[in-house]
């Protein structure tokens, strides 16, 4: 099937779903159908040209889509898949954009091809009014299985790297690269000094605190759905902080060597791109 013949459905028109639909309209040749529980969001998406049309009859809309992307919160995604499994078009491709994957390990369908995916892109703000057609430019897309039709679309909307992984490996590394930094940022702004630091901060403060401007509903769900991986990494971070504390108090030479090694590791990573 040629790309221009495909009907692509986007379920959940928030920041990610809205940006993805916007990017599809801008860069891919397909008809985009929006599905969202908020009629105002659907009307806005049509007015802005982010989608071609919407249908408030969800089963009917799903039955028309060759490919469906689910941009919902994790538990809502699983509930949607279970509720509408037999409303999807026979042999459709269905992908979710959730930030955890272990939650879906037991889900399988004989009706459609299901692929867990996770776009490595976002903002500190939410909602379709913050949608950006170039949000995914140069980003990585993590996929739990190979699927050529999806990969073609991802490259069309700007993803520069497709990474194939497993749910367990995904959740461990996302715990480290995404969830743990959010935990760190929240812990940082919980400190007493946060309310006293106006005029005292510059780039370092902004770098550490930026993602503390957090969507508490989504991120509390992500943290708890990845509980084992994330709490193990919190323990490891605490251990490293305690090691640094010990060096600061008793071993400045080891501290300097540790800081040097930190710099060298970052420079090596920068060189790898």
Distance between the termini: 36 Å
* Computed Rg: 21 Å
Largest sheet: 8 strands, mixed
Helix content: 40-55%
Number of helices: 10
Strand content: 5-15%
User: N-to-C SSE series?
Assistant: EHEHEHEHEEEHEHHHHH
Number of strands: 8
- Strand order, largest beta sheet: 3-2-1-4-5-6-7-8
Mean pLDDT: 95
* Classification by helices and strands: alpha/beta
Shape: elongated
Contiguous low-pLDDT stretches (5 residues minimum) are: none
Structure description:
By secondary structure, the protein is of the alpha/beta class. Helices cover 49% and strands 13% of the residues. It has an 8-stranded mixed sheet with strand order 3-2-1-4-5-6-7-8. Helix 6 (167-189) packs across helix 9 (227-250) and helix 9 packs across helix 10 (252-272). The chain is elongated and about 70 Å long. The two termini are 36 Å apart. The relative contact order is 0.11.
